[in-house]
Amino acid sequence: MGESGKPLYQELGLLEAEYERVVSLMGRTPTDPELVMFSLMWSEHCSYKHSKPLLKGFPTTGARVVMGPGENAGAVDVGDGLAIVFKVESHNHPSAVEPFEGAATGVGGIVRDIIAVGAKPIALLDSLRFGPLTSQRSRFLFRRAVNGIGNYGNCIGIPNVGGEVQFDDRYEDACLVNAMCVGIVRHDRILSCAAKGIGNRLVLIGNRTGRDGIGGASVLASAEMGDDDADKRPSVQVGDPFTERKLIDLCLAMSEAGLLVALQDLGAAGLTSAASEMASRGGVGLAIDLDRVPLREEGLAPGEVLVSESQERMLAIVEPGTLAAVVDMAARYELDATDIGEVTDTGELEALWRGEEVVRIPSLYLTDDVPFADVPQNPAPAPSPIDLADVAEPDDLAVAWLSLMGDPNVASKRWIFEQYDQLVGAGTIRRPGGDAGVVRIPGTDRAIAVTLDCAEWHCELDPRAGGQASVCEAARNVACTGALPIAATDCLNFANPEKGHTGWRLVQSIAGMAEALTAIDAPIVSGNVSLYNESPRGPIFPTPVVGIVGLLEDASKSVGSAFHRHGDQILLIGYGEPRIDASRYLGRCEGLPPAPDLAREAALITLLVSAADKGLLASAHDVSEGGFAVALAESCINGGIGADVTIPKGRRADEAMFGEGSARVIVSCRPDDVAAVQGLAGSSITVQVIGEVAGDGVMITIAGSTTQVAVADLARVWEGAIPQALEA
Amino acid sequence: MSATRVAVLRFPGTLDHESAATAVRAVGGDPFFTHHTDTELPDDTHAVVIPGGFSYGDHLRPGALASRTPIMNAVKRHAAGGGRVLGICNGFQILCESAMLPGVLRPNASLSFICRQGDLEVADAGTPWTGGRVVGERLSVPFKHHDGAWFGDPGESRVVLRYRGENPNGSVDKIAGISNLAGNVMGLMPHPEEACDPLLGSVDGRTLFAALLA
Questions:
Q1: What CATH number has the domain bearing residue B202?
Q2: Residue pLDDT, tens place only, A325-371
Q3: What is the CA A341 to chain-centroid distance, rounded?
Q4: Chain B residues within 8 Å of chain A (Cβ atoms)
């Protein structure tokens, strides 16, 4: 029995049927530590019991894929024997309970996934969702989460090169904090987590083990948020970035010296998860002597040592002959490296405590035998498109424009990214605030472009098209810098899949993402699923965050979003008509945005990459939140220069200026290069010359009527919105 | 003749050692890393760079622990013999904590970390650190720090660089970088090693690294 009088398995969050399966697999009643291990490994967070079967739909192979999903992070070839390693991961529930430490340890966790592959981290990004900044609680969560990401990321010396944030009521009690890390590794230095070599030693490296984060994966991450969230605060881990930095340096040095047979980070479910993954992957057993685990405090029970989520720890397999060298090297970096056990041929996870065996579980039971749960699929009725007659036309388009620029969802995110070190490592070629971050691949003349995006309103209204749109927007952002999208990672943030239409939206979004990723030839190489993002106020929007990595063959040819020179011609490139449906201008998640045309999306990407490679583009900027007028204003503000353009009216002037839902990019180039850009477009992509870079105002003419606002006025509203909202 | 040897100090938590080494190479020097437990600099050490980062996790105060390591005694001897020392960001903090430069670095007035490309201007052209630049000349160099507000008596040092325009951190007299009165030890909060590559937007930082080799 547990302390509450309920059976222990119930207290631990296991269903009765799951408990019965444990007993039947084991052929006996499990010990308490064993039961704790099952409860965590079979939680949604660790087992993906709802989502794993669905993820099979993603494209995961391709000519560049060096390592697909299943390891700590995926890897893709970028030439010269080098691979880029990356993954995005959520830390939503901990951040809702304790935003500073929750967000900070989210960064720490994803970075350890990258170093577990043997890669050197070179970039961080983050994707955030909070309630509106009019809410005091959301201001607190947002401010503290950004502080936490900044404090940890700055101290470990990885540049933060991009990200995104949205504010909406749906995230008021269920915020999202997703972090992505990108690393670089030589192909022949890529490490696997698979344990091998009977008799090899199991070495725990880094921090000592304490009581923090116990049950984080099952208590927090696999349940909805509720009134007792404050009681869950002890389940949130506490980060120590200084130790993480030493851990990064040490692991890279050990890998370079060839001392590691396998490496794995300790994340959710701590030692239990790390050891069972390593054993199952390697098809071997691991015997752990819990008395040898260095502890931060006295009195931990064996089950607590096995599942503690104390941060900044890695588990390595090393050959017995190199153990002394491993311990010596760790001492040089002022870290512990402790021999805690060995690789066995039993296929079982064994744990000794005070000389007695307290755990003996075939590791596959923990990693592969979770009972999968069906996701109920209850389709939501298809919404109707917005009838323009129901939306009042603004008296003054300039006033509407300025008001949209001041919407925190549209406004400059400078308040966030100026708290992050964007430059450490001296490789950041394009900083946050543009379409994608661009980072030089160390030691080469090439660069990568990286971005995180999600079209959650679109996913709510039409999840299949929304999944496609999330991928297409991320890919377009990368292509705007001139980089060719080569691979992707995803973080599927959804509500409780057993309720309402969530399961159906999850399945549909994945299908849409898979179609778009196939169309642009960017396989998924890593990913993460976060379910139960739901509170008594209701579910979050379906938020499948997509991270895309693109490759620039020549780092000097990257393109930014800012207009450069007076007299440059401005071109609108893409396809489709802007629509008011689910736009920031409409301000509501209503209507039916047009679905992407995947063949045209691929053609647009090819055009942008090719034009950048030929050096034709002075700037390129994707039209997204806020529509054409906002994107044009951003290119003007970033360049400190004006523009004078004429665009078609379409159905109505406000929709032409602020409508979304089509794939269009605002490009500027020298007048002499216009014909060359037009020559690159096939029949499916339209290239319209709409005006030129000029003056210090932004002028948009529609059907003979001109709306004009000074760049300085647009900039003041756009830059001031988030700082002002936080002062409220 | 072999290239000039420049020691790049590395403590646990140092972050910018590789960028600093790249910058030293870009101006023709030969950089090497030290370990924090070293007690001596090699005899052929011509100059020393103390790069940025969070040495010892900023525990106690930024730079406080690093300033008490054995290698810093060797750096003091190097400077006492007239050798040049450049401290960047956390390196500047370490130089102040070691009393090799006057004053202290206090938390930014905003109490927030700030990362921004900024303009500096030469305030004193008489030290080696500004090359041939004249007073008032502009350098574009990024700054990024949480504890960058220099506080002290400017009269005890030579004010080499000031922030142009808005003061990002509330330092006395908009000071961005100072040298000792002799001019051979220089500390600044901005990051010249991240302004040595045209693809990063500026090469103005090379001026400071070139001064190490003279």
A1: 3.40.50.880
A2: 999 999 999 999 999 999 999 999 999 999 999 999 999 999 999 88
A3: 34
A4: 12-13, 15-16, 18-19, 22-23, 35, 53-54, 56-59, 112-116, 142, 144, 146, 191, 193-194, 196-197, 199-200
